[in-house]
Design goal:
- The complex is a heterodimer of chains A (122) and B (199).
- By secondary structure, chain A is α/β, with parallel strands linked by helices.
- In chain A, 44% of the residues lie in helices and 19% in strands.
- Chain A contains 5 helices and 5 strands, in the order βαβαβαβαβα.
- Chain A has a 5-stranded parallel sheet, with helices on both faces.
- In chain A, β3, α3 and β4 form a beta-alpha-beta unit.
- The longest helix of chain A is centred in the first third of the chain and has 13 residues, at 12-24.
- Chain A starts with a strand and ends with a helix.
- Chain B is 18% helix and 30% strand.
- Chain B is built from 2 helices and 11 strands; from the N terminus they run βββββαβαβββββ.
- In chain B, α2 links the parallel β6 and β7 (130-136).
- The longest helix of chain B has 20 residues, at 68-87.
- The N and C termini of chain B lie far apart (60 Å).
- The chains are: A alpha/beta (122), B alpha/beta (199).
- Chain A binds chain B through residues 10-14, 16-17, 20, 55, 57, 84-86, 88, 91-92, 94-95, 99-111, 114-115, 117-119, and chain B through 68, 71-73, 75-76, 78-80, 82-83, 86-87, 91-93, 123, 126-128, 173-186, 190-193, 198-199.
- β5 (101-104) of chain A pairs antiparallel with β10 of chain B.
- Chain A: Residues 4-120 form the Response regulatory domain.
- Chain A: Keywords: Phosphoprotein.
- Chain A: This is Two-component system chemotaxis response regulator CheY.
- Chain A: The modification 4-aspartylphosphate is found at residue 53.
Chain lengths: 122, 199
């Protein structure tokens, strides 16, 4: 059974890029358009990993993780940031909120696949 | 002759030249962004309510519209601009765009300008960003001036006697692009690129 990844980004183009990369490698991808959408989907279904952007309307990436980690469904699901941001302060906040990693955009398919394979398994 | 009270005088204007691979944004009424385009694309985005705007300038290296590079680097150039506007107080749903460039300047560059223009149009459509003006294609270079505070754009076609910077497709990335930082128990083994340890 294939691993299921939640891709959270307000940009349809970025979600498309993530989906094309991961589906091509055998993963199932569910998309969320912002942190609020992600919170609803991640509490309704268990994911093997979550990839989230930071800057999004309604609820940003950090807000999503902070809320999600307080819920029973939020325990143990690896979450990695995919962001154009690279400030150490943001990374520190992400770590504090419960993210396990931070990947700076843009990335190529091999880099993304390696990260997903590492955190979710093949 | 009277001058509009809220319009800055010529001495107050700061003109920034936006080169290929750059992305700039401002809420200042004194700021003007300028660039010269051949095959390149520049996107001028503005939130007219917040009074903020910005410009990017890119040239994607392939004439294949479906090339993965277009998605990767073109989307990145656009996302950097959108994020810069959001940080200045723009609301994503209010952002409007004007796109320019994509000319066929030399046979050596083939249909790259056309593919770049197609990418820009498609990106805005996919992202639901209103495109309020566009001037794309042709075979003449363009000089663009953009007032980010108001979204006003001035375009001038250049003649063959004007000197247009040579354009070579190149992808300039900010430092750290593609880098991964794992915070805790995940080791850095088996990763294709250098991984940063947590600070």
């Amino acid at each position: 059974m294939s691993k299921t990844i939640l891709a959270v980004d307000d940009s349809p183009s970025v979600r498309q890029m993530v989906r094309l990369t991961l589906v091509g490698a055998g993963y199932t991808v569910v998309e969320a358009v912002d942190g609020q959408d992600a919170l609803e989907k991640a509490t309704a279904q268990r994911f093997d990993a979550i990839l989230t952007d930071q800057n999004m309307p309604r609820l940003d990436g950090l807000g999503f993780i902070r809320k999600f980690r307080t819920l029973p469904e939020g325990k143990g699901v690896p979450i990695v940031f995919l962001s154009t941001e690279s400030q150490d302060t943001l990374k520190a906040q992400a770590k504090e909120a419960g993210a396990i990693g931070w990947m700076i955009k843009p990335f190529d398919q091999a880099q993304l696949l390696a990260v997903v394979k590492k955190v979710a398994g093949a | 002759m009277t001058r509009c009270a809220d319009r800055p005088s010529a001495s107050q204007i700061s003109i920034t030249h936006v080169t290929q691979g750059s992305c700039v944004a401002s809420a200042s009424p004194n700021e003007v962004y300028a660039t010269i385009l051949g095959s390149c694309i520049c996107t001028c985005m503005c939130d007219p309510v917040a009074g903020v705007g910005g410009m990017n300038h890119f040239l994607l290296p392939s004439s294949e519209v479906e090339d993965a590079q277009h998605l990767r680097y073109g989307s990145h150039a656009m996302e950097l601009l959108i994020n810069a506007l959001l940080k200045l107080g723009a609301a994503r749903q209010r952002i409007e765009a004007k796109i320019f460039g994509g000319a066929m300047m030399t046979p050596q560059l083939g249909a790259i300008g056309q593919a770049n223009a197609a990418f820009a149009r498609r990106y805005l459509r996919d992202e639901g960003i209103l495109c309020t003006a566009q001037s794309l294609g042709g075979n003449r270079a363009r000089r663009i001036r953009f007032w980010p505070k108001t979204g006003r754009v001035q375009q001038m076609f250049l003649g063959s006697e004007d000197v247009v910077p040579t354009e070579q497709p190149q992808l300039r990335l900010q430092g750290g692009a593609g880098d991964v930082t794992f915070f805790d128990r995940h080791s850095n083994a088996e990763m294709p690129d250098p991984i940063k340890e947590p600070r």
